[in-house]
Design brief:
By secondary structure, the chain is of the alpha/beta class. The chain has helices spanning 79-88, 107-120, 143-149, 164-177, 188-191, 200-205, 213-229, 241-252, 263-267, 289-301, 316-319, 336-345, 351-366, 427-431; strands spanning 2-10, 19-25, 28-34, 48-51, 56-59, 61-66, 91-96, 124-129, 153-155, 180-183, 196-197, 209-210, 233-235, 257-261, 306-307, 380-390, 409-419, 422-426. The strands form three sheets. Strands 1, 2, 3, 4, 5, 16, 17 and 18 form an eight-stranded mixed beta sheet that branches. The chain has an eight-stranded parallel beta sheet with strand order 6-7-8-9-10-13-14-15. The longest helix is centred in the middle third of the chain and has 17 residues, at 213-229.
Length: 432
Amino acid sequence: MRIVIRGGRIIDPSQPEEAADLLIEDGIIRDLRPSAGSSETDWPGVDRLVDATGRLVLPGLIDTHVHLREPGQEYKETIASGCQAAVWGGVTAVCCMPNTDPVNDNAGVTEFILKKAAEAATARVYPAGAISRGLQGQEMSEFGELKAAGAVAVTDDGMPVMDAQLMRRALEYARGFGLIVMAHSEDLALTGSGVMNEGLVSTRLGLSGIPNCSESVMVTRDIALCALTRSKLHIAHVSTRESIRAIRQAKDQGIPVTAETAPHYFTLTDEDVGEYDTHAKMNPPLRTREDKEAIRQALADGTIDAIATDHAPHSSIEKDVEFDLAANGIIGLETSLPLSLGLVRDGVLTIHQLAERMSLAPARILGLDRGLGPGKPADITIIDPDAPHRIDSRTFQSLSRNCPFDGWNVQGWAVMTIVDGNIVFDRKAEAL
């Protein structure tokens, strides 16, 4: 299939920023030409001509951290519904976490996930396998088997690897198989029975708190192990200013560490727990205003490489309960882009930096070759940056509704998502 995207503003640091026409053929970007002086007749024999005038054309957004819940918890999300939510949000590829039921700690589960993703035929899915069997933190999974089946990373996300020796071995073995280790950085002893950030708000609400050092202590440990092994380490869902200081220092020392944060950490604070709102309960928890500002600064200066959602669907069964008992996590695939565009409007990031944090850096972390140059895979997100809209979780493609941004007025969204040269989401067509 031949598709031409005409007149869009190209947002890719490796390409000139200009209004350009982009030719897609057989799933590959074949040509990129300035739009100035061009006309429709310059592209004979195309199957679809997409007018992107006034729109931003980005390399497809990539989310390094999602929970698709299948197998085992399909009432919360399926691979098909999660992928549909992704493309509606402009996300062309996701890396899915292994805390399914059964756990993705073997080739059979990895292959099942990839089969379901192929059937969905929307977003690309890159599975992360478990570091330890059953996420028990005792015995390593077979990394070679997971890699051969299609895993791109290993992590025990949802649970930290408390055993430092096991984490060291995981880093060493992962390096041998070309896998990146994603760290859920949390000291369970420091977390204890905590259910939200430790501070003034938790004290006022009478809730057990989780101190910042619960995260930063483990970030520091894992950076030390990364320095020892020289293996690639990716730190998930960074939420504290102390963690940022440690990551910044590690990068200055040339230690091969990358990091991600999520929109809720640069948008919300522990004050948004309000009167025990379980949609504001997550792990790590929402932190203070000072932490939020540190996150925003770290995105601006590149200390934090990527924006990921930590998309964690839950049903009302898990959320409509007492705060102490509620499950951690929120959905994010359909709100990540408009919330992140807010960083551009606030002057925190340029639009090119946003493309780096949401497209190109996530691709590098996962070992993917992406961009808008000729010969690159045709994974593309087209954005209307000015479209005002109201977030309404009832319209989401996700099966779950645990969204703290429901009812927010935001600006900007994806109007078209292209994966492997196929238009998998067209907002104009959906509105008909």
